Amino acid sequence: MARLRFSTAQQVIDAYPSLAVDLSLPTNGDDPFTYIDRLLKSPKSEEAFAFCAFLLPRLEAVAWLCKTIRSSSPSLSQKEEQLLILAESWIKTPTEAMRQNALQTGMNATRNTPSTWAALAAGWSGGSMTSNVEHPVPPPVHLTGLAVKLGLQVFLAHLPPVRQAESIAQFSRSAILMLKENKT
């Protein structure tokens, strides 16, 4: 599924300069996997999933967030379920119509659920942020990664503090597995 696009952690930061604000650990020329391991061992281990949100290609990043929500959320409200289904539908069929549907629904939803951020991540993955075909507005390239990161942060905030550190490692390792399974 995923393809590793960067050979160093610094390349990820160079491609997404806004990510540098989220990272306190220098890259030291590390490859992405070594850098994630170092982040997970640092006092600010939550930086690992922020890094992963930008390391993964857009479709896989959205899939990672959706998988995390599905595997760790005991129950979702009807609205949360609808938003998650829209993001998952775009993953299965990444058409412009599916992307626009996820974007519009996500834009009209409250921002305090991970499912909203999943829909927005799908919606900001490409195409235009407006429905005006005469004047398209492409989303900035960092928005999908940002939405995935925010979705994970919101998800994490709803967990009891004793489960947060364990979940950060679990989320990050899940992203690593997605990349390593199909490394090219």
Task: List strands and helices in order, with pairings.
Elements lengths: L8 H7 L16 H10 L5 H9 L2 H15 L5 H15 L3 H12 L6 H10 L19 H15 L3 H21 L3
Helix pairs in contact: 2-3, 3-8, 3-9, 4-5, 4-7, 4-8, 4-9, 5-6, 5-7, 6-7, 7-8
Detailed description of the structure:
The chain has 9 helices and no strands. With 184 residues, the protein is mainly alpha-helical. The chain is globular, with a radius of gyration of 16 Å. The N and C termini lie close together (10 Å).
Features:
mainly alpha, globular
In a few lines, what is going on in this structure?
This protein is mainly α and 184 residues long.
What is the helix tally? 9
The secondary-structure class comes to mainly alpha
* Radius of gyration over all CA atoms, rounded: 16 Å
Q: Main β-sheet, in a few words?
A: none
Kindly report how far apart the N and C termini lie: 10 Å
Strand content: under 5%
Helix and strand succession?
HHHHHHHHH
